[in-house]
Every structure is written in structure tokens, then in C-alpha cells.
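name: query_chain
kind: protein
chains: 1
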Amino acid sequence: MQIPPFANVIDATKFGAPVFTLDDRGDVELATACSPISHLLRFKESLKMKNIRPALLIIFFLCMLVPRTGVSGVDEGVAAYGQGDYATALRELKPIASKTGNSRAQVVMAFMYDNGQGVPKNHKEAIRWYRMAATNGNALAQYELGFLYFNDPAISPDYKESIKWLRRSAKQGNDKAQYSLCIMYANA
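structure:
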């Protein structure tokens, strides 16, 4: 009688201690307590690939039938913005940016309001969109918001707010934000 792979685990998982298992030859193996990866791998190996292949194909084709919600509208909107089709970009991105909080859509909306592309130029609205995207972690929006607070003549400078957003963007690797901070610190 063959012992199932899950039956030969020494139970030490309650405290996050190492778990030892016996493989098919009776040798001791070290597995992690947090995830039963080694057990899943052995379970997978015990199944025949010819039995799994049809199931995987069915799952793949079912996934292809499921519509991609949200992301496709963002991709289409960003592509339209890049091609200068601002009406399509606005139609695709504004509902997604407003309802789902997609930071990529929000930052493009901010660009449109900041530059008057497809909408009237409006710095307050641009800052609102930049702030939403920056709050959602978008490094480009954080940089733009920090730059606006430092350098935009349409709003009064707020150096503390500028440094806060530039630092957040710089921590994510945005080289423009890193450079801007260097210039700010050098001139302080």
C-alpha cells in the first residue's frame, strides 16, 4: 500500500517551524511550513500530463472568452491620447478614472486638463486628477504634482507639498523626481 504524499508530514506547521517529509525512497526532505509547495509539486508529478492537458486547454479557451473589464478601456484611452484623439481618450478614460480609481487613467486625465487637450485648460482640475493618481501611487503623477507645487505660476508655491510628492516619486525610481530633489537641495 502506497502512502499518500500528504500523510507523511511531521506536524510542526502550527509555529512556522520547518516541516520534514519523506519522499518516495524514504529520504527526509525539508519543506516550508508556510506553503505546501513541495507537496503540490509531488502531487502534480503523480498526475499524468496527458490527463491534465485537455483540462488546461479548456480552461485557457474559457479564459479567452471572458471579457477584460477596465483594462481594455484604459489601453484604448491611452492609445487614443497618444494619437491625439482626445475625444475618444476622454470618453474612454474619464469613467474609468472616476469610478475605478485607475491611476493610469487619472494621470492621463490630469495631462488633458493641464494642457487643454480635448477639455478646457484648467489647473485646478489637473491638480485634482494628479492628486488622485498620486494618492493611488502613480510615480509620474507624484512627480507632476510635486513639480506643479514648486514651479507652476498659476498656483502659489508650496515647497513642503512639493518635496513630499517629489520624494514619493523618487522613492519609486523616477529619475526626474530624483534630479529635481537634487536641484532643490543644492539651491536651498
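note: The first strand starts at residue 19 and ends at 22.
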